[in-house]
Amino acid sequence: MKRVIDEMIKIGKKLGQLKLIDGASGNMSCRIGDFMLITKSGSILDSLTPQDFIYVKIGEFCEGISSDWKVHSRVYKKTDYRAVLHCHGIYNVVLSFIQNEIVPKDLEGRLFLKKVRVVEGEFGSEELSNAIAKEIARNGIVIHRGHGIYSAGKNTVDAFNKVCYLEHSCEIIYKLDLR
Questions:
Q1: Angle 45-139-171 (CA atoms, 0-180°, nearest 5)?
Q2: Is a pLDDT exceeding 90 seen at residue 177?
Q3: Three-state SS for 87?
Q4: What is the distance between the alpha carbons of residues 26 and 48, in angstroms, rounded to a whole number?
Q5: Which run of H or of E encompasses 177?
Q6: What is the β-pairing status of strands 141-144 and 148-153?
Q7: Residue 16 pLDDT more than 90?
Q8: Distances from the Cα of 126 to the Cαs of 15, 74, 123, 163, 165, in angstroms?
Q9: 118 forms bridges with which residues in the sheet?
Q10: β-strands 141-144, 116-119 pairing
Q11: 78, 100, 143, 159 — which has fewest CB within 10 A?
Q12: What is the spatial distance between Cα 67 and Cα 164, in angstroms, rounded to a whole number?
């Protein structure tokens, strides 16, 4: 468990360095059997400590858990992914207001992402949790309109790499559209 927490702390710092989170925004988790290790509500991802995590059975609520716990639980129930990451990069959020899907123009985006859908729904609702999990099962990554990226992977590094590819692709699309 220490190795998993250390990796999550490292990814949290990288999210902050790349400006993919702001303040106490974003969350992450890792599946460990029938349980998940998830950030607490209000945790600041770029300054995580081992005390910022809760170990809970997948699908169960407990006091202090991230407000996105339903999304993480649904992803784990519908997929074999072992990590889920949520963050709020500027370019993906901006483009989510004006596009229904992101089709990368850059090579890495085209290779690793293909096309990323933008879903809508009320934060915290069952419908939104299901929509996000459905898209992650299909493609491993999705954007919630006006809110940010949800990414899943075989580990936190894999989920983080998808986030980076998508935010980079969104920045390229945004800057090309300014021409």
A1: 60
A2: no
A3: strand
A4: 12
A5: helix 156-177
A6: antiparallel
A7: yes
A8: 27, 9, 9, 24, 28
A9: 143
A10: parallel
A11: 100
A12: 23
Q: What's this model's pTM, rounded to 2 decimal places?
A: 0.95
CB 154 within 8 A of CB 91: no
More reliable by pLDDT, 23 or 131: 131
- The pLDDT tens digits of the residues spanning 45-83 come to 999 999 999 999 999 999 999 999 999 999 999 999 999
Q: Which of 157, 168, 163 is nearest to 21 (CA)?
A: 163
Residue type, 85: L
Q: State the residue for tokens 């990368």.
A: 104
CA distances, 136 to each of 7, 47, 77, 121, 169 (Å):
22, 27, 12, 15, 18
Q: In the numeric block, which tokens belong to residue 52? A: 């910022």
**Residue reference for tokens 């998830």:** 38
DSSP 8-state class, residue 106: S
CA–CA dist 115, 75 (Å, integer)? 19
DSSP string, 16-83: HHTT---TT--EEEEEETTEEEEEBTT--GGG--GGGEEEEETT---TTB-TTHHHHHHHHHHS--SE
- What are 128's two structure tokens? 């939104």
Q: Amino acid identity of 15?
A: L
Other residues' Cβ atoms within 10 Å of the Cβ of residue 84: 29
* Helix 2-17, helix 156-177: angle, nearest 10: 10
